[in-house]
Amino acid sequence: MQRITALFSAALLSVGLMGSMAHAQENAAGAADQPSAETQAPAQNFSDAQLQKFADASKEIAVISQDYTKRLQEAEGEDAQKQVRQEANDKMVEAVQNSGLEVDTFNAIGQAIQQDPELMQRVQEMAQASSEASS
Q: Most buried among 25, 57, 94, 121, by the most CB within 10 A?
């Protein structure tokens, strides 16, 4: 059950991440004027490759989340909703694993991003760059 909760949290984060990408470019110039937050506790050191995999998986999860949110709203009864949640969780786990990350690593990056605005910006830029490259 914990894996479902963590993955849904990650899905919500990824939806927020994808939704905030447009704002990231606008805010990038303003952020350059602000001093870096060196007083924050250092985040885990994730490689650029891991962060890119996270960005790619997040895009997939955002699509899955949007699809299954609609299905969840249409599901009637607790059993139907539980089945939709389980199916969504399975698809999200598959998306993470297909990206080359372990679910635990994906969730750890998601938590680190929530605590580190600079890391979040790096991942947003990676996601934006991969979106532009695939267009």
A: 57
Residue 35 lies in a domain: no
Predicted confidence (pLDDT) per residue in 14-63, tens digit: 545 444 333 333 333 344 444 333 333 444 689 999 999 999 999 899 89
Q: Is residue 106 part of a domain?
A: yes
CA 40 to chain centre: 22
What's the alpha-carbon Rg for the chain, to the nearest Å? 16
Does residue 113 form part of some domain?
Answer: yes
Per DSSP, 54 falls in state H
CA distance 58 to 128: 12
* Angstrom distance (rounded) from CA 61 to CA 15: 8
Per-residue pLDDT reduced to its tens digit, 92-115: 999 999 999 999 999 999 999 989
